[in-house]
Amino acid sequence: MKKKLTNNFGMKLLSLGLAIVFWIVVVNMDDPMDSRTFKDIPVTILNQEQVMEREKILEVIDGDKIDVVVEGRRLELDRLTEKDICATADLEEISFMDTVLIRVSVPEHPDVKVLNNGENVMKLIFDDYVTRRFSFKVNTTGEAMEGYYVGDALASPNIIQISGAKTVLDKIKEVVLEVDANGRSVDFTTTAVPVVYDMNGDVIASSKLSMNLESVTVNVPILQTKQIRVRVDTVGEVPEGYELLAENIAFQPETILVAGTKEDLEKLSSYLVLKVDVTGQTGTIEKNIHVISEFDDALTSLRVVGTQMVAVTVTITPYLDKSLEMPTAKIELRNLPEGCSAKLIQRLTVPVKLKCKAARAPLLTVDQLKPYVDLTGYTEGTYRLELEIDLPSHVLWESRTFVDVVISKNEVSPPHSVAGLE
Q1: 0.90 surpassed by pTM
Q2: Distance between CA 98 and CA 51 in Å, rounded?
Q3: Which of 171, 189, 174, 179 is nearest to 137 (CA)?
Q4: Which helix (H) or strand (E) holds 257?
Q5: Which of 103, 115, 187, 340 is 20 to 30 A from 309, alpha carbon to alpha carbon?
Q6: For residues 357 and 322, is the Cβ–Cβ distance under 8 A?
Q7: Pairing mode of beta strands 242-252, 271-277
């Protein structure tokens, strides 16, 4: 038996060695070594208690998730999942630069090696832990049923208390409640989840905040609507020589849509009268009138749907120039001195320049005017006197007109003698 075992011992030993080599080759061919990368593995922070003891809050700037490269047998790597990888940052190992080394292990797979272990660090900020109060902004989306309007929604309660890192709370711009009012025709109550926005309009993750309310009750009134016509009236007087024509008053829009309770809408007139003061004004007046300010303050439910302003333009125009040739025969010489006679030494007509309202200008003729010269206080002689006219209310002088008048004494006839008398 011994001879059989030791016979050709060298060959047998060689065969055993070759068999082992072949087995290793076969094993490596069927289950070779390989590597695999797992992305965005969450990092667990250890020993946070010391941060809370200092009334501080921890904010991770970088390193809350990392990529992990592992090496092992292919069959084992195929069974590996993200949950098998443990990444931790221990605050007891924090550096003076507020960074912590991230350690990675695969506890349930000891034969798997982490290739990039110790290459990642977590960057931290220790911030003051503060609490603040914010009011809600309610945003309603969608449109109410035709003939109705979504009123101002109210949150109950209307204040929320938020706690967190001071640097995070400093960025809060508003806390919004979103409510869908599409197709509504009656008042309704619903609940909404608070959403916190920063100054850039981005949502601040709720994981960074602690809020005392998870949801809020919102009461949404649904108002009826009414179409109102707009009218513009003027108050005051324009300067002499100017006029305001009805066609020179323009405004947009000519109608507005008003929403409110049924009771307030019934009290509302079908016209909204807007007033523009034209006292002493000339040229063009442009004015934007805020509509809601013109309603009765007692009608508290009223809302203007759409544009809130009415643009008004009022044009005040000067009288038109009117030139006439006044026949001298029509000029009356008033208050002639006793015992005198007078006459004009002008040509047949005198030019007269007037100003007249636009609508009356084409119709104005010399027959409507009563021209005269007042001779009060004058005696014999030749004078240049101002022509005066009893002007209608819609006519003004453009420029003064003068005429030349000669006043002379009447000749007295000598007494006649009586025949036969000495």
Answers
A1: no
A2: 12
A3: 174
A4: strand 255-260
A5: 187
A6: no
A7: unpaired
Q: Give the other-Cβ count within 10 Å of 281's Cβ.
A: 18
The rounded Cα 149 to chain-centroid distance in angstroms is: 20
The Cα–Cα gap between 314 and 224 comes to 33
pLDDT for 9 equals 60
> Do residues 110 and 38 make contact, with C-beta atoms less than 8 angstroms apart?
no
Residue 242 amino acid letter? Y
Give residue 13's Cα distance to chain centre.
Answer: 93
- Give residue for tokens 């006839």: 413
Measured distance CA(138)–CA(357) in Å, rounded: 57
Cβ-count burial 118-147 (b if 16+ within 10 Å, e if not): eebbbebeebebbeeebebebebeeebeee
Q: Which pLDDT tens digit goes with each residue over 360-405?
A: 888 888 888 889 999 998 999 999 999 998 888 788 888 888 999 9
What would the pLDDT profile of 166-195 be if each residue is shown by its tens digit? 989 999 999 999 999 999 999 999 999 999
Region 198-215: mean pLDDT is 93
User: What are 55's two structure tokens?
Assistant: 């009334």
